[in-house]
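Figure-free illustration: sequence to structure, shown twice.
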Amino acid sequence: MSICTESIQIIYRESDNVTGNLRTVPLATISIDRLERLHPVIHVTEDSRGWHGRFLKGMLSKTCDVILHENA
């Protein structure tokens, strides 16, 4: 049995700060309404099968910019 882990990083964009305020937040604690307001960039580290990142990208692509990273 393999254990799947994902790293999700959300970058908050602030209008007065070009680089944004960087903060790591568990995705499960954020509502879709809040994501729509913030429109963050989410970095997802996929497991070796890669389906978790693609699933998240499909679910959240309208409210976030999702960038996928493969595990080395």
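We now fold a second protein in the same way, so the two outputs can be compared directly.
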Amino acid sequence: MITFGLAFALICGFTNAHPVQAAAVSYQTLTYGTTKTSLAAKYYVQPAQVVVNGDDYLVTTTIHTTASLGAWPVTVLSINGVGPANVVKTHDNNDYDYQYAFETKDLSQTINSDIAINVVGVYAAQHTLSFKFDQKQLPSLQKKSPTQTPAKKKIPVTRAPNDQAKQVANLNAANQATQTKVLIGGGLSMVIVAIGAGLWVRRKQPKS
């Protein structure tokens, strides 16, 4: 039989195990190298979720597309110089969500991302986007000296580098199929393929 004291201790133990609270942070999705809002901005869900994870920010964002564009037409190849982490792909009858995360110690800088777009039979290309985050909404990182022990991460960050090579190979095959279909289609599609032709997906080497 659980005594009152033990029950109270158990309850206190659970309530004191504080979950990691995410800050909702607005951000801009920009055409690379400019201050102009990218056409892709409407697919990036606002706000991003930002948490302090050890000594870094862990930023989670979601790309939301409708079924009319096909299954997950946007793939993140790199974000802040490395492959995306904690990727989760979900869908229902009408929508596709591609959630991913990245780490950084500095969100005051512009964050760049390479993405691949493949709308089957219509458009295939690779683009670079830039993101700027609202500084007023960011949680505070604890400042440490170089001699201090790094803080332990509360949220695991998983990144599978081998998946990126497979991803790129699959995208190149899909892009080639799309461009072939567009060429066969002719007319307006020829204009689209002229814009996207030659923009093949290349594997990015992560920063050390």
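Summary for the second example: Confidence is low (pLDDT under 50) at residues 1-18, 183-208.
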